Amino acid sequence: MTTGISEGALFDTVLIANRGEIACRIIATCRRLGIRTVAVYSDADRNARHVRLADQAVHIGPSAARESYLRADKLLDAARRTGAQAIHPGYGFLSENAAFAQACADAGVVFIGPKPSSIQAMGDKREAKALMQAAGVPVTPGYHGDNQDPAFLQQQADDIRYPVLIKASAGGGGKGMRLVEKREDFAAALLSCQREAESAFGDARVLIERYIVRPRHVEMQVFGDSHGNVVHLFERDCSVQRRHQKVLEEAPAPELSGAQREAMAQAAVAAARAVDYIGAGTIEFIVGEGGDFHFMEMNTRLQVEHPVTELVTGIDLVEWQLRAAAGQALPLRQDQIHHHGHAIEARLYAEDALKGFLPSTGTLQVMQFPEASAHVRIDTGVERGDAISPWYDPMIAKLIVWDEDRPRALQRLRQTIDAVRVVGVTTNAVFLGRLARQADFSAARLDTGLVAREIDTLLAPLPEADEAAWMLAALGFWAQSQSAKDDATSNPSPSGRGAGVKVASPWTIADGWRLDTHAARFIELSANGQHRRIAVREDHDGLRIGFDGEAASPVSFQWTAPTLTAALDGVRRNVDVLVQGAQVVLYRGEDRFVFEHVDPLHRHAGAEAHAGAVIAPMPGRIVELLAPVGTPITKGTPLLVMEAMKMEHTLQAPHDGVVKAFLAKQGDLVADGAVLVDFVEGDAESAA
């Protein structure tokens, strides 16, 4: 198979060997350049957004990535069948797989990325460290050798001195990485790291490095072409991380001197030249408190956080990738590349941060973001009605903002996060909003331990709803239910209050109707263990609202879903109220309140069916059973390990008690809500 293009000409057709947000991102640039795109999809992604956006789409297998997106043979067959001249791997999956890059070359298809030899050189962290040392790039002290005997690695960690990092040799994205602060924790951390590395990368080898206290993570974007040109596009600070996975990224890195930036840039360019690099790459450095920096790794692909570089430089990195892969020289010299302003990116995930960041699956019943502008960019791979499945990374969107300087960009970030409206899955928006307001982050006092130090504050329970919040939630629920009546009309009440609300026919009202007037309709809500009954009465004088048993007060309001503007006790408030099924979510500024509507006819239908049981919080695979059966254990004791969405999650004992039985075994695939452990509170005798 041949490419059918002349050197330097852009491709006619590109196959995107990826999914989700990055596939949609690549399609956008290809469309702008007049390049046809081919999407690939698994069973789970049959109706995904990237499939809908592409010019063609090819089914490549079952939902499991190892049977679809990780199958090089199926990807190359799809390229052959559609006449694609090049394959863009995106990030993740096969983007840093040297064997896949070589298979593309052998098949006559251009791999939009570096040469296989470059990927190979930088793909093994141990070999990359040695290569960087030879190139004069500073590296972190540690053990990068071949001996993988656990006792030997334990001794190396002892010699390096704790704390140390165990890192998967073939790893990336925070997977296969463990921080070990004391000797007695090393063996268990090593086993867990190797297991996760084998699952994620098919390679259990690790290296050991000294953990630099209060480090910053600063990375340099580099680009090379086949004409010998290598440039940098300045740096990004990715220090705000949780479990070694980036949460917020920004460009340029704050509090970095010109001398530090120049030294880091020169080291990054030297690193890229050392492997004859072509295309987009990132040299990641760890920066100590004194400003000294050390090479960590090179990501031989486009980074998730590349949009912040695009916003400060004005350069489309995907376009540059396409041009470099087509044999063109880089469009700009180093002295022509400049940066302006400040950009910050936040990763919005379907996960419940307040419950240990458990992934959340479901259908996106509501998904609303601020409109795109020169200051706000939303990169997403999903739309309203799409599903977040357990098969892949739970990212919903990247929220990216830009402004003239960091303080103004930070304010835009806060406003953007506050404006996110997602119902159907739980998101980390509250966590992101708190992080964007955290004192050290706001003051640019950054290091990779920031989130861990502030975790209790960042994950504090949601604020208790005040009386106004209860009333506004009830009013929003009432307004939505009124407007949803099948035979509603648009007549406002005689007083003009409630303009825009559809008043239902009395024959469709299930409660509260009286001849010539209305009795109160009672709306019962619950939140955080509290229950309130709110009376809403509509009559000829307008609307009145109050708590059950208390005097009702007049309220004037306007409802244009989801925005509710209401005057309670003379105070006018603008809030958003989203109602999906029994869930009522009230957004008020940076605060979010989640209520459940209690149907009095089904008050007891939700009683717990498995009191004392430990339930699967998400679909996944059982990796390991940890607790002994029949032996008393304390609250918080690890019971079992699940793998879901490419990460391991440890489920703990909900209280002191005894494991009576495990209802799933190692290797089992379990559904969301499945009973995993028969757990009883008490001692061993109570379990008999």
Summary?
This protein has 688 residues and is an alpha+beta fold.
Number of strands: 41
Total helical segments: 17
Report the sheet-strand fraction: 25-35%
Taking all residues together, what is the mean pLDDT? 89
Taken from the alpha-carbon principal axes, the silhouette is globular
Quaternary state reads single chain
From the alpha carbons, calculate the radius of gyration and give it in angstroms.
28 Å
Q: What proportion of the residues is helical, as a percent range?
A: 10-25%
Query: Main beta sheet, described?
Result: 8 strands, antiparallel
In the predicted model, the low-confidence regions spanning at least 5 consecutive residues are 1-6, 486-504, 604-610
Q: Which strand order does the major sheet show?
A: 14-13-10-11-12-15-22-20
The rounded distance between the terminal residues' Cα atoms is 68 Å
Helix and strand content put the structural class at alpha+beta
Keywords: ATP-binding, Biotin, Ligase, Nucleotide-binding
Domain ATP-grasp: 129-326
Domain Biotin carboxylation: 10-456
Protein name: Acetyl/propionyl/methylcrotonyl-CoA carboxylase subunit alpha
